[in-house]
Write a structure and sequence with these properties.
mainly alpha
């Protein structure tokens, strides 16, 4: 895991990987976005909804910290050992959403995360455990649940596109 100790570098990575997602999905057709089995059983739309759900967690965690509450990490009623169950539950919840809604939510949530990180102090990102409310500095969760997570799921999308629609890759 790379160590980020500079907020601007963290923001640059957020923007760089967000643009990577854009370059990958912007010109895909509705059919390409909704075709199943891109990554496991998931479509590109499902993957984007999944990435959005995890970015929303980052926002919720910081909201809890702002209210001096211990954030539910990874989520209320779940442990890290239950992440697959959590992801499956969210997929069931989100699969009926329209593609337009999924894409709009992804972009809006990304921008909210970017603004949040940009507005945080160095201490809040890289040093604080918020009086023991979290075990480690929050930059690690920002990194793993935003730009590293983008790479984890968009690379398989690009591999799928390379096999099925090579002209779609930029």
């Amino acid at each position: 895991m790379p160590v980020f100790t500079d907020k601007q570098r963290l923001l640059d990575m957020l923007e760089l990987e967000y643009e990577f997602v854009h370059r990958t999905i912007d010109d895909l057709s509705y059919e390409q976005m909704t075709e199943p089995n891109v990554e496991g059983a998931w479509s590109v739309k499902d993957i984007i909804a999944h990435l959005t759900a995890w970015m929303k967690r980052v926002l919720k965690w910081f909201e809890a910290l702002d209210e001096e509450r211990t954030p539910a990490i990874p989520d209320e009623g779940y442990t890290w050992q239950m992440v697959d169950t959590l992801n499956d539950a969210e997929h069931e919840r989100d699969k009926a959403l329209s593609l337009d809604d999924v894409l709009a939510d992804f972009h809006d949530t990304y921008h909210a995360v970017y603004r949040l990180v940009a507005g945080l102090s160095h201490e809040a990102l890289f040093e604080s455990t918020f009086g023991g409310l979290v075990e480690k500095p929050m930059w690690e969760l920002v990194m793993t649940d935003t730009f590293e997570h983008f790479q984890e799921h968009i690379i398989p999308v690009r591999e799928w596109l390379a096999k099925n629609a090579p002209d779609a890759l930029k």
